Amino acid sequence: MTVAAAQQECCDVSSFSDVIRFDVNTHIHYFAHLWEGNPPMAPPNPTYSHNVQQLKRKVLQAAKESQGSILTLSSLKVRIGDLWNALLNENFVFSFKNSLEIAVYRKLETAFCQWTWRLRSHVLDVQMRLDNRIRNGDLQQVTTEHLEGLVQETSDAIVTDMEKYFREEKHCEMLVQWKGSTERKLEELRKNLLLETRKKCQNLIELQKTQSKVDARKSEYEDDLLRKSRELALTLKGKSLSEIQLREEFTSLWAKMTAKVTNDASPLEQVDIDVEIENVLLEHFNEPGFHERIRSFPKQGGFSLDLKKHVTKKKGWKTYLPRNVFIADWKTYLPRNVFNADWKTYLPRNVFNADWKTYLPQNVLNADWKTYLPRNVSNADVILQDITDNIIDRVWANIDKKEQEKRDYSQTFIHEILHEVQEGVKSVPSDAPFSVNKDYIIDLSLYLCRTAADRFKAMHEAFQKANHPLVYLNSKREDYFTCFQMSCQGATSVTAFAVFLCDKLAPALCRAVYERTAKAIAGDMQGKVPDFQGNRANLDVCILRFLAQEEKFHYFKWYLQHPEQFFQWYIERRVESYCLGESRRLEKFLDSSLDVLYGNILSAVASSTQRVKDRKDQKDKISLWLDEFCRELTELINLPRSDLKGLEHQEITDIEFLSKAMAEALPAMENELREEFAVADLSWFEMKPHTILAEQFLGCWEQCPFCGAVCTNTIWGHDGDHQVLFHRPRALTGGWWDKTDHLVIDICSNLVASKCKFEVADARWIRFKRYRDAGPPFSNWKILPDPSMQAYWKWFVSHFRTDIENWHGKKFQGRGEIPQAWQRITKEEALAELDKP
User: Fold this and answer.
1) Closest-CA residue to 837 (of 163, 90, 109)
2) Residue 325: beta bridge partners?
3) Average pLDDT, stretch 427-440?
4) Looking at residue 353, what is its pLDDT?
């Protein structure tokens, strides 16, 4: 029995004494009958009392001799109950878990969540500093060793705290069994964070290198223009010219310069993107007649999934689908007013404005329209539609990112699309009753490449225009004129210099404030909002409480079918309510970040002035001051020194006067930013606070193939089997009893102790006790027999009985009849149980 339990729990145990200190000669006690004779007239048996006294004496002696902590009597009672229930329900193969261990482990997980947040927060801070250095041209390479050094101190401090926790916590003897796995998970997280940070830095460095090749040509013309404007300023110095006269002089110089650029600049490179896409596809698929297939592919419209054309049916798979799944009209499964021509008749008369969508269920108009379909339809077209949607979403997200980075088109973009399709196809479940064929891969690739072509053309055109020397120079014409004007004024241009520099600082400072604020919001919520103070299991409890309070069935369906999407939506919703409520916390966060960065700028002005003012060499003092100023801020804001080259030759020698001018100009910039932050919302953030928080709760999102419960492991791609603490009624995933339309209310952790069977895709029937014989994904799960079911799901099934029946097209009847005891459970009782350890 011990060996069998050890094998199931992957433990190195061969005898009962390996699990517990046990002496067969002294640890076994026999009790006489309580009554001496037959009750009710029989007197008590004194031997029974002697046996109890012997056991009491032995327990107290063992407690006295124990080197560590001992069980309390209440804990002993719980363990005996756990053991007895295990023996009753698990064929004498039991798991050595109990309520105390669960409570201790949950406390450990909460502590682990705090450690991982400290590490994740520090790495994010490191990444932000490195990004600024790369954008400012101060860093051209990021090595793993360099990153290791940047996080070593924080990492060592976290490890020290963790070791202290395992050493000094009240139940340290119980905790020791998880010490090794906790250390491994923390180390794995650290490596993954560093790997991801290095990858992001390398991508940014490559992007900067690509841009620098283009910038080199622009820089030649810019240097030439600045040199000629300085020469012109020297000829005009000392003359009392108005701004209009100065502008006329500059305009004349500008006309000559732009004419030269127009004559010298090579014509824009023309790339036939359609031909390149065609060539890549021909090379990739290499099929006879493929050229004609490309030409005949529809130019307009979306991607249409065709089961007859795109999938290959496995043996026995039709038994899982309604007869009409193989027709294109899957929409007949949806409510009448969602997709037919008469849906408007279901809306109030005055709804025909931009807000008519608010009258439809929330998930009808987004990717979750599938939740309106019966669960058993999803075995074919909806599962594949989900996979297709995910592929398309990833491709569009990748192109969105490239557009935001203002990158030029590259042929590698086409290969990336084909790679995404291949990776998406691999995500088709191995137990799915179908497989996709080459027609699906080809049609989806053709659709994506055809649709992306227009975006690639727009990217290429925008990049060439933005980086053409003449376009670039025109975009900075006013900057050049300001520099020219300051050169004409000579040493009296200090105030104009300070104002110009503040104009350059403002957008860089604004971007840095939003980045810093996003991290600050995430950190503040992680420390103050109960939803985010623990692990993902704690967050799941908060979500279940929210769902019960809202009592909106389409929310439950979304949560049950797409848990990861719902988690992210819920986190985003909580962030919005936290930041944008009546308290206007967002404005306070932005102001706080601005205070810190504004202080850094003042400090940079002071330190740069201090280093440069006492230099005896009067030449290029402004250039040296700008060098020092940018160096001080290189990790804090994105302000490349090359953007200030128009200022570096100004004839300003009084550096202290410049410092005072900056002190007078900076407050105006600060006030303008505060006015902007007063009306800001979360859409203004490039790095979203809810994204940072969501990353803290990443992990395994695999769902139990029987009930849909999500694996509780906190690391994606973890070793070992998937598992959950509590399983749910099979009715939530549409499970029904064979040859009936009766939903299954049993939980899978109870079914694996029964004699029941389930059918798999190839029409085989497998006993639940031997569920692993069904192969993946069933064999990847560890489902221990346990009859306990959360009251929450009993309440949910009872409360939403009709909705669940309509959803799955089945009934809670016969073996699926909802017990009266379930129907008596109140929402308050269900929620109260969630809070128990």
Assistant:
1) 109
2) none
3) 76
4) 36
Tokens 């056991």 belong to: 55
In which band, very low, low, confident or very high, does the pLDDT at 40 lie, cut at 50, 70 and 90? Answer: low
d(CA 712, CA 717): 12
Average pLDDT score over residue span 222-230: 83
What CA–CA distance (Å, rounded) separates 258 from 474? 9
- Tell me how far apart the alpha carbons of residues 470 and 462 are, in angstroms, rounded to a whole number: 14
506 burial via Cβ count (<10 Å: 0-12, 13-18, 19+): middle
- Is a pLDDT exceeding 80 seen at residue 268? no
- With contact defined as beta carbons under 8 Å apart, do 407 and 467 qualify? no
The pLDDT of residue 593 is 96
DSSP alpha helix (H) spans, 286-380 = 290-296, 307-310, 336-339
Are 738 and 759 in contact by the 8 Å Cβ rule? The answer is yes
Query: Which 8-state DSSP code applies to residue 733?
Result: G
CB 762 within 8 A of CB 314: yes
Mean pLDDT, range 52-59, rounded to an integer: 84
Question: How far does the chain reach from its first CA to its final CA, in angstroms?
Answer: 29
pLDDT at residue 354, as a whole number? 36
Q: Which of 456, 450, 451, 445 is nearest to 403 (CA)?
A: 456
pLDDT of residue 175: 87
661 contacts 495 by C-beta, under 8 angstroms = yes
Q: Please give the structure tokens belonging to residue 18.
A: 């390996």
Q: What percent of the chain has pLDDT over 90?
A: 37
Query: Using CA atoms, how far apart are residues 821 and 826, in angstroms rounded to an integer?
Result: 11
CA distance 565 to 55: 55
Q: Which of 782, 784, 785, 810 is nearest to 797 (CA)?
A: 810
Whole-number Å distance between alpha carbons of 551 and 555: 8
Q: With H, G, I as helix, E, B as strand and everything else as coil, classify residue 220.
A: helix
pLDDT band per the 50, 70, 90 thresholds, residue 328: very low
Residues 504 and 639 sit within 8 Å (Cβ to Cβ): yes
Place of tokens 């039709």: 318
Of the candidates 263, 241, 238, the one whose C-alpha atom is nearest the C-alpha of residue 250 is 241
Alpha carbon of 2 to those of 7, 781, 798: distances in Å?
9, 21, 40
Task: Name the nearest CA neighbour of 375 among 703, 814, 46.
Answer: 703
Instruction: Identify whether the C-beta of residue 501 lies closer than 8 Å to the C-beta of residue 644.
Output: yes
CA gap 720, 722 in Å, rounded: 7
Please check the confidence at residue 263 and state whether its pLDDT lies above 60.
Answer: yes
